Amino acid sequence: MNRFAWLDAFLGRLIAEDMAVREVPEASGLAPARGISVGADDWGNFGKSARNWNCRWAGCWAEDLGDQLRVHACFEKDHGYLLAHTDLRRATPILSSHAPYFPAAARAERHLQDLYGIAFGDHPDPRPWIRHQAWKNGEYPLRLDFPLAGNPLPATPADQGYPFQHIQGSGVCEIPVGPVHAGIIEPGHFRFHAVGETVLLLEERLGYVHKGIEKLAETRDAHGLARLAARVSGDTTVAHTWAACMAMEKAAGIAVPERALALRAIMAERERIANHLGDIGGICNDVSFSFGFYQFNRLRELWQRTSATAFGHRLLMDRIVPGGVTTDLSETAARAQIDQISTFRPQLGRLMDILNTSPTVENRLIGTGVLAPQAAAAYGALGYVGRASGVDLDVRRDSPYAPYHTLKIPVPIEQAGDVAARVRVRAAEISASFAMLEQLIGGLVPGPVCAPWTPAPPDACGFGLVEGWRGETLAFVRFGTAGRIARYFPRDPSMINWPLLEVLIADNIVPDFPVCNKSVNGSYSGNDL
Amino acid sequence: MLRVLGKVQRIGIITESLPPQEEPVLRAVGAELQEAVAARFRGSLAIRQVDAGSCNGCELEIQALNNPYYGIERFGVHFVASPRHADLLLVTGPVSRHMEEALRRTYSATPDPKFVIAVGDCGASGGEFAVSYACAGAVSNVIPVDAVIAGCPPAPFALMQGILEAIGVRRPATAR
Ligand code: SF4
């Protein structure tokens, strides 16, 4: 399959339209993506054309290269990834926005606006996003001249003046929720406008857990970056570490041993199953079906204990390192995993039967929080959120990376787009991952689990692309001198999926918000960085 | 409904079953805890968890305390939705500066006397994130802290033990 059959025609078209576009000579670290550079004046029109060619917008990030700022945007079409970049003069960092064509780009560009001081001229919503009050307006933490320590006040004040949208009318009331929520969950602010119980508008205000991950990455060595990537979002520690290591390994030209790749995939599938089990339990809890909550969390706990016995950490944190993995899988631990899968499989089937035929559960989940396929496609919805709304996308199958190229990857797709469909997709994904784990464990070849690390040359770039449990997970890495990281950007699927919660909650009742939120389960930490 | 009951009956009560080497420790600490909770908190210790910039790993393990294996409620410990109902704050994360004021307000909304436990390597010291333009670091840099439970993240058993030890040994911080 030629993933780039469209690209030559697309580039030809852009050139015919007089855009300053050229393909950048294949930088091997960026494979399977291809790179192009675009003139800054043509950036907006380029985005418009990408929209017209039905490309999916998959992320944007920037770099401070000293005399210029470089903005990257990632697109995908027919499973071919395109990394476009443009260079801006530092003195006048003004650029056209892609948000008018790709709604998912809106907050990502505001992230760049707040952290780099890039002005997106025709941006539909230039309010601050990631900046609250930890640094001043006019300071840009990701510029090279901004010190990691920053210039904080002795006490950082709350961000009070944020101009939320307002709806007025008789009976409209505004409900502010958060940042501290009523459960054991991450912080963020939700502003509801409701009439009676019905939600007219939900506006999310995130950024509360911004930890400066992108800045902290600078000057780390490869192993230090892997540790940081492991903490982008704790529930996705495997996928982010894998994506970051993949990017670094491509940049440094390191071949990871076959056994290590299989072990990474085993961990990634274990992480997927653990989160799906916990979240289906959480969804049950949010509709007061405590039986389901306890049953699914019982399975999750057993599952995590097996992970701890096999690899030494319940969440599998810091098991993936540049060049491979830290921990081999013993025969006994491998067999224990296989045994557990065979006891879990029938239990999952019975539990899903109970869930699917329990009137109280059905009543709350079916038709709740519907994400229409058109909206899912327009935003480029990822993971189970997209797949429950007809978006047929799974990196493991579509842009396979070792060892997934050897496996059969069933991708469950639903069209209903409601909470129930998201639950069904996730249950089907658990079953699919059980089968993959059996294949991976059964097919383990003996051999080393880590290749020696040799630092990458200065300026070497790498692109990591894996299917985490929330969906497509990207990482961009550029090395600086002495094998130190110059730039790391992780694109968690939550960055794309968070705005969809605003879309799917409209016209639902406020009391259904928790279950809708749980059914999407965006990462606050992965979004805020 | 019958199937639900059937499943309930088949699985039975699974609470406990900690690794054998931890079991005696848990029982000892558990008994002490129940005593402490009974004596000091009239049988019920209310915890408010505050995520102050965590990566969410710590939250996953704190949530696990409510799963049927740990069932921390059996020791009289439960999680509440409002700091105004809480005796104890469990605070995670390297205190992102954007959460700093919310943490301070949560602390002052918690009635005296109160305990604060900083959870995880982040809460203890800032962990992998430390102090920067975006993080204030250890929880104790922002509010008074009575005890620390280290780990990245601390496993549920370590959390349980840490909570028990903190309230068993220490006097609650009075209004400061
Ligand atoms: S201590 Fe570890 S698990 Fe907990 S918030 Fe910090 S990085 Fe995450």
Structure explained in plain terms:
The complex is a heterodimer of chains A (529) and B (176). Chain A has 529 residues and is of the alpha+beta class. Chain A has four domains: 5-120, NADH:ubiquinone oxidoreductase Nqo5 subunit (Beta Polymerase, domain 2); 166-208 and 494-529, no CATH class; 211-254 and 453-492, no CATH class; 256-451, Cytochrome-c3 Hydrogenase, chain B. In chain A, 40% of the residues lie in helices and 17% in strands. Chain A has a five-stranded mixed sheet. In chain A, strands 8-9-10 form a three-stranded antiparallel sheet. In chain A, strand 9 (189-195) and strand 10 form a beta hairpin. Chain A is globular and about 60 Å long. With 176 residues, chain B is α/β, with parallel strands linked by helices. Chain B has a single domain (24-166), classed as Rossmann fold (3-Layer(aba) Sandwich). Helices cover 40% and strands 13% of the residues of chain B. Chain B contains six helices and five strands. Chain B has a five-stranded parallel sheet with strand order 2-1-3-4-5, with helices on both faces. In chain B, helix 2 (23-41) crosses helix 6 (156-169). In chain B, 51% of the residues are buried. The mean pLDDT of chain B is 85. Chains A and B meet through helix 4, helix 8, helix 9 and helix 17 of A and helix 1, strand 1, helix 3 and helix 4 of B. Residues 54-55, 57-58, 92-93, 120-122, 127-128, 152-153 of chain B line the site of iron/sulfur cluster.
Helices and strands in order:
The complex is a heterodimer of chains A (529) and B (176).
Chain A: H1 5-16, E1 21-23, E2 34-38, H2 43-52, E3 56-64, E4 68-77, E5 80-89, E6 94-95, H3 105-116, E7 119-120, E8 172-177, E9 189-195, E10 198-205, H4 213-217, H5 222-229, H6 237-252, H7 258-286, H8 290-311, E11 320-321, E12 324-325, H9 331-357, H10 359-365, H11 373-379, H12 383-387, H13 395-398, H14 419-442, E13 461-468, E14 471-479, E15 485-491, H15 493-505, H16 513-520, H17 524-528
Parallel strand pairs in A: 2-5, 6-7
Antiparallel strand pairs in A: 1-2, 3-4, 4-5, 8-9, 9-10, 11-12, 13-14, 14-15
Chain B: H1 2-11, H2 23-41, E1 45-51, H3 57-64, E2 77-79, E3 88-92, H4 97-109, E4 115-119, H5 120-125, E5 147-149, H6 156-169
Parallel strand pairs in B: 1-2, 1-3, 3-4, 4-5
Helix pairs in contact in B: 2-6
The structure holds iron/sulfur cluster.
